[in-house]
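[agent] plan:
  1. take the single chain provided in the ticket
  2. run structure prediction with default settings
  3. attach C-alpha coordinates to the ticket
  4. add a short note for the reviewer (M.T.)
[agent] executing step 1
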Amino acid sequence: MTTHPQSDEIESGVNRRGLVQALAAGAAASIATPASAQTVSVQQQGSVLAEAASADYARDPTRWGSAEVAGLFPGFKHIDMRTKGAIIRLRHGGSGPPLLLLHGNPNNHVLWYAVASRLAERYHVVLPDLRGYGDSSLPEPGPNLINYSFRVMAEDMIEVMANLGHQRFFLGGHDRGARVSHRMCLDHPERVIKMCLLDMLPNYHVWTSANKNWAMSSWHWLFMAQPEPFPETLMSAVPGEWFLKSRAGSRNPPKVVFDEYIRCYTKKTIIGSCRDYRAGARIDFEMDTADKDRQIETPLLVLWGTRGQPPTQEFPTVWRKFAKNLADAQPLPTGHYLQEEAPDQVYDYFVKFLTA
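[agent] step 2 finished; step 3 output follows
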Protein backbone atom coordinates (compact mmCIF):
# COMPACT_ATOMS: atom_id res chain seq x y z
CA MET A 1 0.00 0.00 0.00
CA THR A 2 1.36 3.41 -0.94
CA THR A 3 1.97 5.72 1.99
CA HIS A 4 2.35 9.45 2.30
CA PRO A 5 3.74 11.79 5.00
CA GLN A 6 1.42 13.47 7.43
CA SER A 7 3.58 15.92 9.36
CA ASP A 8 4.66 19.17 7.70
CA GLU A 9 2.40 18.67 4.68
CA ILE A 10 -0.73 18.33 6.78
CA GLU A 11 0.13 21.26 9.00
CA SER A 12 0.81 23.50 6.01
CA GLY A 13 -2.69 23.00 4.65
CA VAL A 14 -4.57 23.86 7.83
CA ASN A 15 -6.76 26.94 7.90
CA ARG A 16 -4.84 28.41 10.82
CA ARG A 17 -7.16 31.31 11.45
CA GLY A 18 -10.14 28.96 11.59
CA LEU A 19 -8.29 26.54 13.84
CA VAL A 20 -7.43 29.28 16.33
CA GLN A 21 -11.03 30.48 16.35
CA ALA A 22 -12.33 26.97 16.90
CA LEU A 23 -9.93 26.32 19.74
CA ALA A 24 -10.85 29.64 21.33
CA ALA A 25 -14.59 29.44 21.04
CA GLY A 26 -15.48 25.79 20.50
CA ALA A 27 -18.44 24.92 18.35
CA ALA A 28 -19.48 28.51 17.72
CA ALA A 29 -16.11 29.33 16.22
CA SER A 30 -16.35 26.43 13.82
CA ILE A 31 -19.11 28.31 12.00
CA ALA A 32 -16.43 30.85 11.09
CA THR A 33 -14.40 28.23 9.21
CA PRO A 34 -16.70 27.03 6.43
CA ALA A 35 -15.26 24.83 3.74
CA SER A 36 -16.88 24.20 0.39
CA ALA A 37 -16.81 20.82 -1.28
CA GLN A 38 -15.01 22.61 -4.11
CA THR A 39 -12.12 23.70 -1.86
CA VAL A 40 -9.02 21.61 -2.50
CA SER A 41 -6.35 21.57 0.19
CA VAL A 42 -2.66 20.96 -0.34
CA GLN A 43 -3.05 17.52 1.23
CA GLN A 44 -6.07 16.56 -0.87
CA GLN A 45 -4.26 17.21 -4.14
CA GLY A 46 -1.71 14.52 -3.29
CA SER A 47 -4.04 12.04 -1.63
CA VAL A 48 -6.91 11.74 -4.12
CA LEU A 49 -6.26 8.71 -6.30
CA ALA A 50 -9.41 8.80 -8.43
CA GLU A 51 -12.61 10.80 -8.82
CA ALA A 52 -15.79 9.60 -10.48
CA ALA A 53 -17.14 11.50 -13.46
CA SER A 54 -20.76 11.20 -14.58
CA ALA A 55 -19.81 8.76 -17.33
CA ASP A 56 -18.13 6.41 -14.86
CA TYR A 57 -21.44 5.29 -13.38
CA ALA A 58 -22.43 3.84 -16.76
CA ARG A 59 -18.92 2.76 -17.77
CA ASP A 60 -17.91 1.04 -14.53
CA PRO A 61 -20.86 0.58 -12.14
CA THR A 62 -19.12 -2.30 -10.39
CA ARG A 63 -16.48 0.13 -9.17
CA TRP A 64 -18.51 3.33 -8.70
CA GLY A 65 -22.12 2.25 -8.26
CA SER A 66 -25.06 3.65 -10.17
CA ALA A 67 -25.97 7.11 -11.41
CA GLU A 68 -29.21 6.76 -9.45
CA VAL A 69 -27.28 6.47 -6.19
CA ALA A 70 -25.10 9.42 -7.19
CA GLY A 71 -28.29 11.38 -7.72
CA LEU A 72 -29.07 11.02 -4.01
CA PHE A 73 -25.95 13.11 -3.27
CA PRO A 74 -26.24 16.12 -5.59
CA GLY A 75 -23.10 18.20 -5.83
CA PHE A 76 -20.98 15.69 -3.90
CA LYS A 77 -17.57 14.65 -5.15
CA HIS A 78 -17.02 10.86 -5.23
CA ILE A 79 -13.37 9.94 -4.72
CA ASP A 80 -10.78 7.42 -3.60
CA MET A 81 -8.42 8.90 -1.02
CA ARG A 82 -5.17 7.44 0.23
CA THR A 83 -4.43 7.33 3.95
CA LYS A 84 -1.27 5.91 5.50
CA GLY A 85 -2.88 2.49 5.86
CA ALA A 86 -5.80 2.24 3.45
CA ILE A 87 -7.59 3.63 0.42
CA ILE A 88 -10.85 5.20 1.54
CA ARG A 89 -13.83 5.67 -0.78
CA LEU A 90 -15.88 8.72 0.14
CA ARG A 91 -18.32 11.34 -0.98
CA HIS A 92 -18.13 14.92 0.22
CA GLY A 93 -20.19 17.96 -0.55
CA GLY A 94 -21.89 21.05 0.76
CA SER A 95 -20.61 24.22 2.34
CA GLY A 96 -20.20 25.22 5.97
CA PRO A 97 -18.59 23.75 9.07
CA PRO A 98 -17.21 20.23 8.49
CA LEU A 99 -19.39 17.27 9.49
CA LEU A 100 -18.00 13.72 9.28
CA LEU A 101 -20.63 10.93 9.23
CA LEU A 102 -19.62 7.29 9.76
CA HIS A 103 -21.76 4.28 8.81
CA GLY A 104 -22.09 0.88 10.43
CA ASN A 105 -22.31 -2.80 9.49
CA PRO A 106 -23.26 -4.19 6.97
CA ASN A 107 -23.50 -0.96 4.97
CA ASN A 108 -21.40 1.75 3.38
CA HIS A 109 -21.63 5.54 3.41
CA VAL A 110 -24.82 5.47 1.33
CA LEU A 111 -26.61 4.66 4.61
CA TRP A 112 -26.80 8.47 5.12
CA TYR A 113 -28.71 9.04 1.85
CA ALA A 114 -31.88 10.36 3.50
CA VAL A 115 -30.17 13.15 5.47
CA ALA A 116 -26.90 13.93 3.66
CA SER A 117 -28.14 16.36 1.01
CA ARG A 118 -30.16 18.36 3.55
CA LEU A 119 -27.24 18.53 5.94
CA ALA A 120 -25.03 19.67 3.04
CA GLU A 121 -27.09 22.86 2.88
CA ARG A 122 -25.54 23.78 6.24
CA TYR A 123 -22.32 21.76 6.48
CA HIS A 124 -19.46 20.38 4.46
CA VAL A 125 -20.59 16.76 4.76
CA VAL A 126 -17.98 14.00 4.49
CA LEU A 127 -19.21 10.41 4.00
CA PRO A 128 -16.46 7.75 3.98
CA ASP A 129 -16.59 3.98 3.78
CA LEU A 130 -14.71 2.52 6.75
CA ARG A 131 -11.71 0.37 5.83
CA GLY A 132 -12.88 -3.11 4.86
CA TYR A 133 -16.39 -1.84 4.11
CA GLY A 134 -18.06 -0.58 0.94
CA ASP A 135 -15.52 0.39 -1.69
CA SER A 136 -12.66 1.12 0.70
CA SER A 137 -9.64 -1.16 0.64
CA LEU A 138 -9.02 -4.32 2.66
CA PRO A 139 -5.72 -3.93 4.54
CA GLU A 140 -4.00 -6.92 6.10
CA PRO A 141 -5.21 -7.45 9.68
CA GLY A 142 -1.81 -6.92 11.32
CA PRO A 143 -0.74 -8.22 14.73
CA ASN A 144 -3.71 -8.89 17.02
CA LEU A 145 -6.00 -7.37 14.33
CA ILE A 146 -4.60 -3.91 15.07
CA ASN A 147 -5.44 -2.68 11.56
CA TYR A 148 -9.16 -3.24 12.17
CA SER A 149 -9.25 -1.67 15.62
CA PHE A 150 -11.47 1.35 16.15
CA ARG A 151 -8.27 3.25 16.95
CA VAL A 152 -6.78 2.70 13.51
CA MET A 153 -10.13 3.26 11.78
CA ALA A 154 -10.38 6.58 13.63
CA GLU A 155 -6.89 7.50 12.42
CA ASP A 156 -8.06 6.90 8.83
CA MET A 157 -10.88 9.36 9.36
CA ILE A 158 -8.67 12.01 10.98
CA GLU A 159 -6.37 11.77 7.98
CA VAL A 160 -9.30 12.03 5.56
CA MET A 161 -10.51 15.19 7.27
CA ALA A 162 -7.01 16.68 7.38
CA ASN A 163 -6.63 15.99 3.66
CA LEU A 164 -9.84 17.95 3.11
CA GLY A 165 -8.46 20.82 5.18
CA HIS A 166 -10.23 20.14 8.48
CA GLN A 167 -8.33 19.75 11.73
CA ARG A 168 -11.51 20.07 13.83
CA PHE A 169 -14.98 18.94 12.87
CA PHE A 170 -18.41 17.80 13.95
CA LEU A 171 -18.82 14.02 14.07
CA GLY A 172 -21.75 11.64 13.70
CA GLY A 173 -21.62 7.87 13.87
CA HIS A 174 -23.99 4.92 13.65
CA ASP A 175 -23.36 1.35 14.82
CA ARG A 176 -19.69 0.45 14.09
CA GLY A 177 -19.11 4.02 12.94
CA ALA A 178 -20.31 5.20 16.33
CA ARG A 179 -17.72 2.95 17.99
CA VAL A 180 -15.03 4.47 15.79
CA SER A 181 -16.35 7.89 16.84
CA HIS A 182 -16.22 7.05 20.56
CA ARG A 183 -12.62 5.86 20.22
CA MET A 184 -11.73 9.01 18.28
CA CYS A 185 -12.97 11.17 21.14
CA LEU A 186 -10.88 9.14 23.60
CA ASP A 187 -7.69 9.24 21.51
CA HIS A 188 -8.04 12.62 19.76
CA PRO A 189 -10.48 14.81 21.71
CA GLU A 190 -8.96 17.95 20.26
CA ARG A 191 -10.27 16.99 16.80
CA VAL A 192 -14.00 16.68 17.57
CA ILE A 193 -16.13 19.75 18.32
CA LYS A 194 -19.37 17.88 19.03
CA MET A 195 -20.45 14.26 18.50
CA CYS A 196 -23.79 12.63 17.61
CA LEU A 197 -24.12 8.88 18.17
CA LEU A 198 -26.93 6.71 16.81
CA ASP A 199 -28.06 3.52 18.52
CA MET A 200 -24.79 2.55 20.18
CA LEU A 201 -23.72 1.68 23.70
CA PRO A 202 -19.99 1.61 24.55
CA ASN A 203 -18.05 -1.49 23.61
CA TYR A 204 -16.85 -2.15 27.17
CA HIS A 205 -20.39 -1.92 28.53
CA VAL A 206 -21.78 -4.27 25.88
CA TRP A 207 -19.25 -7.04 26.49
CA THR A 208 -19.32 -6.80 30.29
CA SER A 209 -23.13 -6.68 30.43
CA ALA A 210 -23.82 -9.51 27.97
CA ASN A 211 -26.59 -11.94 28.84
CA LYS A 212 -28.81 -14.51 27.11
CA ASN A 213 -31.23 -11.96 25.67
CA TRP A 214 -28.39 -9.91 24.22
CA ALA A 215 -26.74 -13.01 22.74
CA MET A 216 -29.98 -14.04 21.05
CA SER A 217 -30.59 -10.63 19.48
CA SER A 218 -26.94 -9.74 18.75
CA TRP A 219 -25.67 -13.19 17.80
CA HIS A 220 -23.69 -11.78 14.88
CA TRP A 221 -21.24 -10.18 17.35
CA LEU A 222 -20.22 -13.65 18.49
CA PHE A 223 -20.53 -15.36 15.13
CA MET A 224 -18.51 -12.83 13.11
CA ALA A 225 -15.79 -12.77 15.78
CA GLN A 226 -15.04 -16.47 15.31
CA PRO A 227 -11.66 -17.38 13.78
CA GLU A 228 -11.16 -16.87 10.07
CA PRO A 229 -12.41 -18.29 7.71
CA PHE A 230 -15.40 -19.89 9.46
CA PRO A 231 -17.92 -16.98 9.44
CA GLU A 232 -16.66 -15.67 6.09
CA THR A 233 -17.24 -19.05 4.45
CA LEU A 234 -20.79 -19.37 5.73
CA MET A 235 -21.74 -15.75 4.99
CA SER A 236 -20.36 -16.05 1.45
CA ALA A 237 -22.41 -19.18 0.82
CA VAL A 238 -25.72 -17.31 0.58
CA PRO A 239 -26.76 -14.52 -1.81
CA GLY A 240 -26.12 -11.02 -0.51
CA GLU A 241 -29.74 -10.03 -1.08
CA TRP A 242 -30.97 -12.89 1.12
CA PHE A 243 -28.51 -12.14 3.91
CA LEU A 244 -29.20 -8.40 3.95
CA LYS A 245 -32.96 -8.87 3.91
CA SER A 246 -32.73 -11.37 6.75
CA ARG A 247 -30.88 -8.75 8.82
CA ALA A 248 -33.00 -5.78 7.73
CA GLY A 249 -35.41 -5.63 10.65
CA SER A 250 -37.91 -2.79 10.21
CA ARG A 251 -35.90 -0.89 7.58
CA ASN A 252 -37.24 -0.55 4.06
CA PRO A 253 -34.84 1.53 1.94
CA PRO A 254 -35.62 2.44 -1.68
CA LYS A 255 -34.70 -0.25 -4.19
CA VAL A 256 -31.83 1.81 -5.63
CA VAL A 257 -30.30 2.05 -2.15
CA PHE A 258 -30.81 -1.61 -1.32
CA ASP A 259 -29.24 -2.53 -4.67
CA GLU A 260 -26.21 -0.46 -3.64
CA TYR A 261 -25.99 -2.36 -0.35
CA ILE A 262 -26.07 -5.61 -2.35
CA ARG A 263 -23.37 -4.34 -4.72
CA CYS A 264 -21.11 -3.69 -1.76
CA TYR A 265 -21.85 -7.00 -0.05
CA THR A 266 -18.89 -8.92 -1.48
CA LYS A 267 -16.32 -11.43 -0.28
CA LYS A 268 -14.03 -8.48 0.40
CA THR A 269 -16.52 -6.66 2.64
CA ILE A 270 -17.51 -9.90 4.38
CA ILE A 271 -13.84 -10.42 5.26
CA GLY A 272 -13.48 -6.78 6.31
CA SER A 273 -16.56 -6.78 8.54
CA CYS A 274 -15.52 -10.04 10.22
CA ARG A 275 -12.09 -8.58 10.93
CA ASP A 276 -13.85 -5.58 12.44
CA TYR A 277 -15.93 -7.77 14.76
CA ARG A 278 -12.93 -9.93 15.70
CA ALA A 279 -11.01 -6.81 16.62
CA GLY A 280 -14.01 -5.59 18.61
CA ALA A 281 -13.93 -8.71 20.76
CA ARG A 282 -10.16 -8.71 21.15
CA ILE A 283 -7.92 -5.69 20.74
CA ASP A 284 -10.73 -3.14 21.01
CA PHE A 285 -11.95 -4.72 24.22
CA GLU A 286 -8.40 -4.61 25.58
CA MET A 287 -8.19 -0.89 24.77
CA ASP A 288 -11.65 -0.20 26.14
CA THR A 289 -10.89 -2.08 29.35
CA ALA A 290 -7.80 0.08 29.82
CA ASP A 291 -9.96 3.19 29.28
CA LYS A 292 -13.10 2.04 31.09
CA ASP A 293 -12.85 4.79 33.71
CA ARG A 294 -12.13 7.60 31.24
CA GLN A 295 -14.99 9.87 30.27
CA ILE A 296 -15.02 11.72 26.98
CA GLU A 297 -15.42 15.47 27.36
CA THR A 298 -16.81 16.13 23.90
CA PRO A 299 -20.41 17.47 23.95
CA LEU A 300 -22.56 14.47 23.06
CA LEU A 301 -25.98 13.79 21.55
CA VAL A 302 -27.26 10.21 21.74
CA LEU A 303 -30.26 8.96 19.74
CA TRP A 304 -31.54 5.40 19.84
CA GLY A 305 -34.35 3.29 18.41
CA THR A 306 -36.94 1.82 20.77
CA ARG A 307 -37.74 -1.12 18.44
CA GLY A 308 -41.44 -1.04 19.25
CA GLN A 309 -40.90 -1.06 23.01
CA PRO A 310 -41.54 1.71 25.55
CA PRO A 311 -38.39 3.81 25.92
CA THR A 312 -36.21 3.18 28.95
CA GLN A 313 -33.40 5.17 30.55
CA GLU A 314 -30.72 2.62 29.59
CA PHE A 315 -28.95 4.77 27.00
CA PRO A 316 -28.65 8.01 28.98
CA THR A 317 -27.84 6.12 32.19
CA VAL A 318 -25.00 4.17 30.55
CA TRP A 319 -23.62 7.09 28.56
CA ARG A 320 -23.37 9.31 31.64
CA LYS A 321 -20.79 6.85 32.92
CA PHE A 322 -18.69 7.28 29.77
CA ALA A 323 -19.29 10.95 28.87
CA LYS A 324 -18.94 14.07 31.00
CA ASN A 325 -21.07 16.25 28.75
CA LEU A 326 -24.17 14.35 27.61
CA ALA A 327 -26.09 17.27 26.15
CA ASP A 328 -29.16 15.28 25.11
CA ALA A 329 -30.37 11.68 24.76
CA GLN A 330 -33.57 10.94 22.89
CA PRO A 331 -35.43 7.75 21.90
CA LEU A 332 -36.99 7.47 18.45
CA PRO A 333 -39.80 5.07 17.44
CA THR A 334 -37.55 3.16 15.03
CA GLY A 335 -35.41 0.09 14.70
CA HIS A 336 -31.62 0.20 14.46
CA TYR A 337 -31.33 2.35 11.32
CA LEU A 338 -32.59 5.70 12.60
CA GLN A 339 -31.29 7.81 9.72
CA GLU A 340 -33.25 5.66 7.25
CA GLU A 341 -36.38 5.15 9.31
CA ALA A 342 -36.77 8.65 10.80
CA PRO A 343 -34.57 10.97 8.72
CA ASP A 344 -36.51 14.15 9.49
CA GLN A 345 -36.20 13.63 13.23
CA VAL A 346 -32.51 12.73 12.97
CA TYR A 347 -31.88 15.82 10.86
CA ASP A 348 -33.74 18.07 13.31
CA TYR A 349 -31.89 16.69 16.34
CA PHE A 350 -28.53 16.99 14.59
CA VAL A 351 -29.04 20.61 13.52
CA LYS A 352 -30.47 21.68 16.88
CA PHE A 353 -27.53 20.14 18.71
CA LEU A 354 -24.77 21.25 16.35
CA THR A 355 -25.99 24.85 16.22
CA ALA A 356 -26.74 25.22 19.94
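[agent] step 4 note for reviewer: The radius of gyration is 19 Å.
[agent] ticket updated
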